[in-house]
């Protein structure tokens, strides 16, 4: 039945993989075992290739898949570069003469001890127009969503 299906659907079995599955995970302890289970399943599919990008936010993985499908460079660094570049363009649209005080320039984000806080700290280093204070970033071993 599988061979018939492969012929009917014109699925390639030799050469370049017919499918790529991109994986990312969050920072929960179960993440690593879930990724390994997913890899085993994907590797059992003839002609499929799996790429594990490690710890990513859901938007990062979605952006990377979209970028890959559009033929763009599709790495986590490319994601950060596009996001920070877009933010700088947005800030350039601020009318001249408008001043905000230091308190207004600060963005405070609760990272919920998850991957978002960790990644926001990386983005923060790329933004010079905005001061971001990340609380509960997860670097100190905090429990996901505890006390947020």
From TrEMBL:
Residue stretches making up the Alpha-D-phosphohexomutase alpha/beta/alpha domain: 16-69
Family in the record: Belongs to the phosphohexose mutase family.
The protein's name in its UniProt record: DRT101X/Y
UniProt signal peptide: none
Lineage start: Eukaryota, Viridiplantae, Streptophyta, Embryophyta, Tracheophyta
Family annotation (InterPro entries): A-D-PHexomutase_a/b/a-I, A-D-PHexomutase_a/b/a-I/II/III
Gene name for this UniProt entry: DRT101X
Pfam families membership: PGM_PMM_I
Any GO BP: UDP-N-acetylglucosamine biosynthetic process
GO molecular function: phosphoacetylglucosamine mutase activity
Transmembrane segments: none
Organism per entry: Carica papaya
